[in-house]
Amino acid sequence: MKKLEEYVRAIPDFPEKGIIFRDVTSVLQDADGLHLAISTMQDLVKDLDIDVVVGPESRGFIFGTPIAYNLHKPFVLIRKKGKLPCETVSIDYDLEYGKATIEMHKDSIKPGQKVLIVDDLIATGGTTEAMIKLIESLGGKVVGIVVLIELAGLKGREKIAGYRLDAAITYSGK
Questions:
Q1: Which of 22, 59, 79, 157 is flagged as catalytic?
Q2: Which DSSP category does 123 fall into?
Q3: I need a labelling partner for 84 at 20 to 30 A (CA). Which of 6, 27, 102, 105 fits?
Q4: pLDDT tens digit sequence for 55-78
Q5: Is residue 102 helix, strand or coil?
Q6: CB 101 within 8 A of CB 76
Q7: Inter-residue contact 145 to 165 (CB < 8 Å)
Q8: Is residue 143 part of a domain?
Q9: Among 161, 144, 150, CA closest to 122
Q10: Does residue 18 carry a pLDDT above 90?
Q11: Structural domains counted in the chain
Q12: Does residue 118 lie within any of the structural domains?
């Protein structure tokens, strides 16, 4: 059986020269790779006591929903601004090249609920930090974050120090 890292396609010089892009679509396009990714991520957090799984648009949906399903927990969406139909809470945050806004339904997290964040990747940590703030603004307690890939060279872990972060694959570079 292949290792999970073997399913991730590395694309040099994308989106710019000197960057190695870690492409998760190659994991998703292979049934064994997808199964291994979900199983590995879920196994990393098997000891956590959680009430709800949260995932951001769009790859957090892909990895978070099957984990929520397997754990028989609800799944909550975090989306880009303007995509959710009910009353929302939102947060603005900085990206490498600009700003972004994410939001979630105001009634999606109840005070005191223990939350697991699931995403495909952590790089600089800005999006993850914004998700944590959004969840906590509703009274939720983030007890863990699990990602398929951590780009350790971009120091996202430092931005969310104090929160548990598990990664199925860690790359030391950018």
A1: 59
A2: S
A3: 27
A4: 999 999 999 999 999 999 999 999
A5: strand
A6: no
A7: yes
A8: yes
A9: 150
A10: no
A11: 1
A12: yes
Residue 89 lies in a domain: yes
Q: In whole angstroms, what separates CA 13 from the centre of its chain?
A: 24
Q: What is the CATH number of the domain that holds 141?
A: 3.40.50.2020
Q: Which domain holds residue 96?
A: 48-171
Q: Looking at beta carbons, which pairs linking 165-168 to residues 24 or more positions away fall under 8 Å?
A: 165/122, 166/41, 166/44, 166/45, 167/44, 167/122, 168/4, 168/37, 168/40, 168/41, 168/44
Whether the predicted pLDDT of 173 surpasses 80: no
Nearest to 142 by CA among 106, 105, 112, 107: 112
pLDDT digits (tens, 9 = 90+) for 118-170: 999 999 999 999 999 999 999 999 999 999 999 999 999 999 999 999 999 99
The active-site residue, picked from 9, 79, 96, 129, is 96
**Contact by Cβ (8 Å): 64, 77:** no
DSSP state letter for 84: -
pTM: 0.96
Q: Is 57 annotated as catalytic?
A: no
42 lies in some domain: no
